[in-house]
Inverse folding.
């Protein structure tokens, strides 16, 4: 699976949009981009995934560049409860075709 | 159950003892994963089950670690002759057939004294 690069930490003001970037310049055509987050002392939580089209669900939006070498997770109105470590992962296929490799992620601190 | 259930939630053991950690996946989930997370570190993949077979056990750190899954459901991770470096939170996850979304349990915190 392709390697991802994320900034180690970011701050965001409560109520503002949080934009978390991820670089995956070696991504292959059949690899999907997944985002998970881990709130302190809890198990990771799935957020969203996509292949090449932008995706939106009740939690977030995922914007993937046309060349697919990078993506951005957008939390439209960040709250204090969104403070967590956010992981960007690329993986072959959208089905359960094996392990997810978690990097170090981005620690997002939402401030009042 | 409603989610992935792991037990025990906390386990303190002495160096050299064996421990067993249990994972009950969400009903109907065919894939099951074990990860561990040391204090302040990221998630480290251990092993992946599809049904009762383990096509990927590449993350098991040594032969002291083993895992099995029976009936396509419950899985047990066994650590023999525990060492202090085995201290970590052991996380289990499961996913539906054909779905990439993993559902994680709350983990089992292992402390080896």
């Amino acid at each position: 699976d392709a390697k991802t690069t994320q900034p180690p930490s970011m701050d965001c003001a409560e109520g503002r949009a949080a934009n978390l970037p991820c670089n995956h310049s070696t991504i292959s055509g059949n690899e999907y981009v997944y985002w998970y987050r881990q709130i302190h002392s809890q198990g990771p939580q799935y957020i969203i995934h996509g292949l090449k089209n932008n995706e939106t669900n009740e939690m977030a939006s995922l914007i993937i560049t046309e060349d697919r070498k990078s993506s951005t997770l957008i939390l439209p109105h960040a709250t204090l409860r969104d403070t967590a470590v956010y992981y960007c992962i690329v993986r072959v296929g959208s089905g359960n075709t094996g392990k997810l490799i978690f990097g170090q992620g981005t620690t997002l601190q939402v401030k009042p | 159950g409603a989610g992935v259930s792991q037990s025990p939630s906390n386990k303190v053991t002495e160096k050299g003892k064996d421990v067993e950690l249990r994972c009950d996946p969400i009903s109907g989930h065919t894939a099951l994963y074990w990860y561990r997370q040391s204090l302040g570190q990221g998630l480290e993949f251990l092993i992946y089950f599809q049904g009762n077979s383990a096509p990927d056990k590449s993350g098991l750190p040594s032969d002291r670690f083993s895992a099995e899954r029976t009936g396509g459901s419950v899985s047990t991770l066994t650590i023999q002759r525990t060492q202090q470096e085995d201290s970590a939170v052991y996380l289990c996850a499961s996913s539906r057939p054909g779905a990439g979304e993993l559902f994680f349990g709350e983990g089992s915190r292992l402390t080896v004294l």
In short: Chain A has a mean pLDDT of 92.
